[in-house]
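Record type: monomer structure entry
Structure origin: computed from sequence
Chain ID: A
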Amino acid sequence: IDHYRLPLGRLRVGDPMDAQLVSDLRQFTPLRVWIDGELVAEAGKSLLPLLTGPRPNQFAARPLSPRQLQIAHPGGAVRVIQARDGSLLTGERITSPLTHDAQVVADTGRDILPLAVINRYRPAPPALALVNGFGIRRGAIASSVAHDSHNIIAVGADPDDLCAAINAVIRARGGVAVAEAGSVDILPLPIAGIMSDADGATVGRHYAALSDKARALGSPLAAPFMTLSFMALLVIPELKLSDQGLFDGRTFRFTTLACDAAPVSG
């Protein structure tokens, strides 16, 4: 302290003081908190003035229709993102998709589901791909927490619910949503589309409830929304989806849904 002439670290008159008064040395429940010698919290309540001001939130996406989320069958085999529980890495699976009326549709039997990323900073068509590993057998989930660009990302087994979850996030100008059979539950994130203005305990309970609902849709993932949020992080291999399309992190190039390779059974 003396060598570097630091004005802290000792209980001297005139030194800045950050300190806590705690209940005991086992529970460490804060009774009072000082910052720079000023009492800022007491009896579990903050004494600091509330900050006010504009909430930054660049959100220009427009509601979609289910038709805009249809994936035209490119013919032949397709690439599928393989999500892995507890990992940021994904794999690549080559397979023949389930189709109906020349459209690729959700294949819940093989856990191959539509994945969508929508640019929230300007009106743009959605980027669409297929993903394995989410296990959703009905309904859909969506979020505007999608590293690192924080566009809207969604996955689902039902096209109408997929659209409903996405549109709920768009109308709220950010949020985390679960849709099932036309019913939508959303945790709004009005600050930059990634933060709430509610207290932490309330947000934590709502987020936990939404995660439970996502698992109730069939997802085996420990953290469905956390896994979803990294499906758009292009710098982590192997396959990811951005608002510009499917991206191969091994070659660092955009790629296509259609694949010339022979499909792997299963």
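Annotation 1: The CA atoms of residues 75 and 151 lie 29 Å apart.
Annotation 2: The first helix runs from residue 159 to 171.
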